[in-house]
Specification:
alpha+beta; 8-stranded mixed β-sheet; about 35% helix; disordered C terminus
């Protein structure tokens, strides 16, 4: 186990919200983050008298919670909106509420392997420090040090990594190879610090605030962090137990589903 993993497991635990009690925790945390602390457009607290933020996509989603071990507190949550296998033509929220570049389209043949990351949020006040920029996922730890001085690092991994680990585990469980999301560009920049960034596939639009649509082939992400950030790969894949390092056979078996990634990759490199 590398030092990043040791620190991560010292501070955090991923909890799958798969019981009514845990779902209530997730919805309550979403209410606090989205409706109270951040007061985001489209999340008016008066619309949730039970103080539980939820919508029509929750019934077809896998839900995650992030527990802070030292305080035994849930401090983060996200969901993965899964494909509608009964009605695969049904679009995901990012497709309905944002615009894509003309060069990008979701291939119908990939829909059963495509999910959307949604409600990705962390209690930022729990980790707030001076001079940090915040997204719904917490601090974007952008160095502001004078030239030549060492950057002050956190003594524990960014809590966002906990939700990412949970998402990648869930993708393996449901055979998800493609991810869509509408997020703040700053959040995608934060993901990029760890080699986990998604590809921009459209302009920013007003969707619960300024959001941009993103897409990625998860297998390409895993390849990238395996090459460039091995400790991150070891954490998110449990040393290849969840997603093996050699994905060549998997790529061959899913060649058709992977074909649509080409246009997203071109856009991501622009």
């Amino acid at each position: 186990m590398n030092d990043l993993e040791k620190a991560f497991h010292q501070y955090f635990e991923i909890v799958h919200a798969n019981t009514p009690e845990l779902l209530k925790e997730a919805f309550g945390l979403r209410f606090r983050i989205l409706c109270v602390y951040n007061d985001i457009s489209g999340f008016n607290s008066v619309n949730y008298p039970d103080k539980l933020e939820n919508d029509e996509y929750d019934s077809r989603s896998a839900h995650l919670l992030l527990r802070h071990r030292p305080t035994d507190t849930f401090i983060g949550t996200t969901r993965l909106i899964l494909p509608d296998l009964q009605h695969p033509e049904n679009k995901l929220p990012t497709e309905l509420h944002t615009q894509f570049y003309p060069e990008f389209q979701v291939d119908p043949s990939s829909r059963k392997h495509t999910a959307e990351i949604s409600r990705f949020a962390i209690l930022s006040d729990f980790f707030k420090r001076k001079n940090e920029h915040y997204t719904l996922a917490g601090p974007v730890d952008i160095p502001t040090r004078p030239a030549g001085k060492p950057h002050e690092r956190r003594r524990f991994p960014h809590p966002m990594l906990g939700l990412v680990v949970g998402i990648i585990q869930t993708c393996a469980q449901y055979e998800i190879y493609y991810l869509l999301s509408s997020m703040e560009p700053a959040l995608n920049k934060l993901l990029g610090f760890y080699g986990l960034q998604l590809n921009s596939i459209g302009p920013s639009t007003d969707y619960h605030g300024l959001r941009s649509p993103y897409h990625v082939c998860l297998l390409d992400v895993l390849d990238r962090i395996y090459r460039d950030q091995r400790t991150i790969w070891e954490l998110v894949t449990d040393h290849g137990n969840i997603w093996p390092a050699d994905l060549t056979l998997l790529r061959q078996q899913n060649r058709r589903q992977l074909a649509d990634y080409g246009s997203a990759r071109i856009l991501g490199n622009q």
